[in-house]
Design brief:
By secondary structure, the chain is of the alpha+beta class. 40% of the residues lie in helices and 19% in strands. It has a 5-stranded mixed β-sheet. The longest helix is centred in the middle third of the chain and has 20 residues, at 126-145. It starts with 6 loop residues before the first helix and ends with a helix.
């Protein structure tokens, strides 16, 4: 069965992100999965851990109550299409992994990567630009029309993937004199430094 989220809400999600694209469509269906498994929009203490920084996270922020600003949307830079949703009040959740290979062949993926590179560089012909837009539209439609179990593998979990955020004190960087969260201070040559100032003096990181 295709996406069950109201079209008006989908349109608002696209407006929030700025354009429609396959990545955003994945985020919409991912949010739908969280709605079905955890009733995420009514969860008093939800959490999402994303293993990528793809466009779909805008859909997650708009459609669920998980946002960067509240600290309950956590990004782990693993470069994987894995997403964990958790309800801290009920100690239950799931990790979902997007199954890209089910939606396109290796050949289709290579063709799209080649077209994308040309479009980004501005070297695509008019015909290639049309083909790029057509393939994107087809990908979006396939994602929105697919059953959720065609799009994601789901594994239930019973332990929160990250600890709740803590409010920490701020310290003054002894180089730039800006205030820094104490957990981000680096000690170097007897001085308390923020990360940018530390990196100016010590490159072995």
């Amino acid at each position: 069965m295709g996406c069950t989220i109201d079209q008006h809400l989908i349109d608002k999600t696209i407006e929030f992100h700025g354009h429609s694209c396959p990545g955003l469509a994945i985020g919409i269906r991912l949010s739908e999965l969280a709605m079905e498994h955890l009733d995420i929009t009514n969860c008093p203490s939800p959490l999402c851990v994303a293993e990528t920084d793809m466009c779909g996270l805008d859909a997650v922020q708009f459609l669920t109550s998980c946002t960067y600003g509240k600290g309950n949307l956590v990004h782990k830079d693993y470069g994987k299409s894995g997403f964990t949703f958790f309800d801290r009040t009920q100690n239950r959740g799931f990790r979902a992994v997007f199954l890209k290979k089910r939606l396109e062949s290796d050949q289709e993926r290579e063709q799209m990567l080649s077209l994308t590179e040309k479009v980004v560089k501005g070297t695509a012909t008019q015909e290639e630009n049309h083909r790029f837009q057509d393939q994107r539209a087809q990908s979006i439609q396939r994602i929105m029309d697919a059953d959720l179990d065609e799009l994601f593998t789901v594994k239930e979990i019973a332990t929160a993937p990250v600890r709740p955020a803590k409010v920490l004190a701020s310290m003054e960087c002894q180089a730039c004199h800006e205030m820094v969260m104490e957990s981000r201070i680096r000690r170097f040559a007897g001085k308390d430094l923020c990360i940018p100032c530390f990196m100016e003096q010590e490159q072995k990181i």
